[in-house]
Structure formats: C-alpha cells, structure tokens
Amino acid sequence: MPVGTVETRRTKPPGGPLRVGVAGAGAWAEEIHVPVLSAHPGVSLVGIWNHHPARARTLAEAYATRAFDSYDAMLQAVDVVSFAVPPDAQPRLARKAALSGRHLLLEKPIALTLADGEALVDAIAEANVASIVFFTRRFEAEVAQALAAVAEERMWDSAVARFFSGSMRPGTVYADSVWRQRQGALWDVGPHALSVVMPVLGAVTAVEATREEPKITRLGLTHANGGRSDVALSFHAEPAAQAESYLFRAGGHAARVEVRPALRQAAFRNALEALIAAVTTGAPHGCDVGFGLQVLRVLIAAETSLQRGGPVPVGA
C-alpha cells in the first residue's frame, strides 16, 4: 500500500451510479464541482447543501437538482459527499459524512489543525470509506504523466519549485475569500506545490519557511532521502510574473515540469473517476486523505517556522 494511504474496504454498492451531494455553493462549487458532477455518467447529482440556503437554492435551480435544507438530510440521500467548503469547515462535515458511511471527495488542505486532520483520517479509517483529496495538479493528465516519467527516471537530489499565482489579486473571484486572506499563499497554493514535489523526492522531514516582499513565502524542505527542495509561493503575483514550474536535479541531470493554466474541470473529472475506482475496488489512491495528512503536517511545520524562525521538524 502506498505511503500515506488509508486502507479502504467498503466497495461500490450495486444498482446504478453513485449518488453524490455537494457541500458548499460558492464560486468553487459553481465553477467546478456542480458542473462536472451533473454531467458525469458515473454519478447522479442528488443535490446541494450550503449553510446559506439561498445560495444552495440558486445553484440547485441552475442544474435542476435539489437544495437540501439540512446537511443531515443530504447525508441520508447520498453515497458520496463532494466538499466545496473552506478548510476550517471541512473536517467537521467530512468526519460526520465518513462516520455515516459516505465516501469523500475532499478539497485541500484537508484541515487547518493537526487535531482536525488526524480526527478526519481516523474517522475515514474507522468507517472504511474511500477518499480523494483534489490536489489539482495531480489530476491534470499532462502533469501526472510528466511526474510519473520524472519519478521513474532516477533518484533526484533536489528540486526548485515556483508557484506564483494571481488568484488573490483585486477583482478575481477569490479575492474576497476570508480563509485565503487569513491563511495566506502557504495554505492555498502551497499544497499544490507540495503535491508535486513530494511524490518525486519523498516525505518531508523538516521545513524552514520565510516571508519576503512582495508577498512571497519561501520553503526550504528537507526530505527523508536527504534531498532538498526550495519552494517559492505567492498568490498576489503580477500578470507578467505568474508562472508555475518544477525543476528536479540529480548530479548533472535535470528534468523540468512546466504547468500551464489549469484545466480545472478536466482535473476534477479525473479526481471523481479516481474516487469511483477507489469505491469500486476498495484500493486506496495516492491522493487519499492519508497523503492529505502528510501535506497538512508540512504546512503546520512551515507555519511554525514562520512564527519561530529556523527549521522545524515535520510532525513535531
């Protein structure tokens, strides 16, 4: 079983497509979750719940589905919950869904605290349900193929990653996101970068994080194999500076993975299909909640480093 995965034994019930409900009705649900779920032949979009009922009704009406008045009511009607809620709300809702026997399509980061992340992992393991965390880059076909080729080529000693996004610049759809404003680029674009670097260089054992102007966070990562990676993050980048790339090195060898603007709906469709496969076979996926917890541990160590200064062991 891949490192970081959680064993799953519950399999897809017979008798038709999986019934899916969406928790959340904001921009991400409207742009990604609901359109893909409503069009996919392998699932049936049963409905939408949101803590603002009017938003759920508006989105549900646009896709001719049901707006649930309560989260509990939606849980009773579905096999899978697809989460499009902030990371401080996701753990409680997802844990309840798991303990109700529902499979989970989660967003990154899986939580904002280690206690919440571990409790969610424990609930999923206890209920034996399937989970996928939507690390967008890992489900983009071109990026996934490039990463697989890089990982198979050789053992790499180091990586340099740059993820400069403009997602929080004034006027963007996410500019008013409260949790992104509060948590910063580390917690928003950081998980994406980590999800690319870690499968190639391995688990992270220590992090040293610093902040630079203009609004750049840098991570120095030490990996279990002794390798090092340097990651630069921003979600306030000027248009000309916006780019995402990963350079892996080993001696005189180098391999670069360039990420073009994300085809997010296609990536989410691939994540959904990975969840369907996990439900059907009972086999865990490399981007399940176990990997999500690994990434969360790195984020927490990086946040601690920003506050204290110096390197911080992951998991300490």
Give the tags.
single chain, 316 residues, alpha/beta, Rossmann fold, Dihydrodipicolinate Reductase, domain 2, 2 domains, seven-stranded mixed sheet, six-stranded parallel sheet, 11 helices, 40% helix, 24% strand
Q: What is the fold's blueprint, element by element?
A:
Elements lengths: L17 E6 L3 H13 L3 E7 L3 H10 L3 E2 L3 H7 L2 E4 L6 H10 L3 E5 L6 H14 L3 E4 L6 H13 L4 E7 L13 H6 L1 H4 L1 H12 L2 E9 L3 E8 L4 E7 L8 E8 L2 E6 L5 H18 L7 H20 L3 E2 L3
Parallel strand pairs: 1-2, 1-4, 2-3, 4-5, 5-6, 7-10
Antiparallel strand pairs: 7-11, 8-9, 8-13, 9-10, 11-12
Helix pairs in contact: 1-10, 4-5, 5-11, 6-9
Describe the structure.
The chain has helices at 27-39, 53-62, 71-77, 90-99, 114-127, 141-153, 178-183, 185-188, 190-201, 264-281, 289-308; strands at 18-23, 43-49, 66-67, 80-83, 103-107, 131-134, 158-164, 204-212, 216-223, 228-234, 243-250, 253-258, 312-313. The protein is of the alpha/beta class. The chain has two domains: 18-135 and 265-288, 3-Layer(aba) Sandwich (Rossmann fold); 138-260 and 297-313, Dihydrodipicolinate Reductase, domain 2. The strands form two sheets. It has a seven-stranded mixed sheet, covered by helices on one side. The longest helix is centred in the last third of the chain and has 20 residues, at 289-308. The chain is globular and about 55 Å long.
